[in-house]
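User: Hi! Is it possible to get a structure for several chains at once, not just one? Here's what I have:
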Amino acid sequence: MNYFAYKKGDMHAEGVALKTIAEQVGTPFYCYSAGALRAAMGEFNRGMKGMNASVCYAMKANSSLAVIKTFAEMGAGADIVSEGEMRRALAAGVPANRIVYSGVGKKPAELMAALQAGVGQINVESVAELETLNAVAGQLGVKAAITIRVNPDVDAKTHAKITTGKKGNKFGIDIDLAREAFAIAGKLPHLNVVGVAMHIGSQLTTLSPYQRSIRKVAKFIAQLRSDGHRIDRFDVGGGLGIVYKKEKPPSITDFLAIVKKETKGLDCELTFEPGRRLVGEAGVLVGEVILVKPGASKTFVIVDAAMNDLIRPTLYDAWHDIVPVRQPRPGAATIRCDIVGPICESGDYLAQNRDLPRLSAGDLVMVRSAGAYGAVMGSTYNTRPLAPEVMVDGTRFAVTRPRPSIDDMLAAERFPSWMERPKP
Ligand SMILES: *Cc1c(COP(=O)(O)O)cnc(C)c1O
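Assistant: Yes, the chains can be modeled jointly so their relative placement is included. Here is the combined structure:
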């Protein structure tokens, strides 16, 4: 089912016209379809039937409380990378024991907070972290359940900034060196080694990197067991890709089937940490055209959504489909244009060299597949308030994060005591 579609000439999110939201909330705004979120999570749940497996949603992709709660209601735990994310997961009703704490640089205070809250699993990425965590757990008089994240040295064939499972990436411990790390962990009194974790990259559009990695890790698990470790869990990570342009990512069902096949007989409880796949296509960014500026070689369509709202085109050379919210007439003439924001950076664009129907000031445009790594990467550069977030469910919609006022933004700052206050 298509959760964002034209109805009677206007783009809708499920049963709500985006222009109705724009009238009430203003632009730019993010809009998430609860139906699309539930459909993706439902496909995981169906595919995992009969497997000893569960999903811990990688909430860095979209950490909106309403989004996390939508998944938690369907049984998902959370994969977190900071104390802040832990607090969000707990606030959204995720049980602490369903939280997995990942990340390459956790601070002692963050590890302490995680253990105090009772998170279910900490994925350790270095020997130094094993020692820090052991010390923190010792202070609290607890035993921390851990996996060690290994780097299987497999090329995920994705963008350089989001590949994580190749030798030379900062993530995990090289699989050739990890045996030693497990030996060290096994001797630390406040750690309980429960398994192995991996996460090889993001926006993977083929299954073979998973297949190769799982085979390597399965061999490694056999070796660990013969070394006397009790390995009960295998955290497969996330990374499954979505459609931005014309990618053909595998279905969730096919992904799970491959994992099931490759882990057969391994006798491990599996954890999946999907982020992008659960939220990416379920969200859009809506902006309004401020003005159209014809240039010598192409036209610039300047919209009120910018790189501070969606940095993926600038950061990852990402391609996002952009469509007018008012449905163009069939066969309407198009013009070659760049869709750009108002920010003072040449890198501030949402799309370049697109053929779009003629747009004018006041028209709304929708940026597709913006639900993952969109709002969460937003900034207030140029003192632009963070774009609000809206959730649609059927014919209802709600603002789940309002747009801060500029007064709110200024009120968060202080002058040093030695400065004279500006006169009002
Ligand atoms: C980012 C991340 C994920 C989620 O990646 P997606 O590509 O969004 O699925 C899962 N696990 C870990 C450890 C991560 O860092």
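DSSP finds twelve helices and 21 strands in the chain. The first helix runs from residue 18 to 25.

User: Great, thank you!
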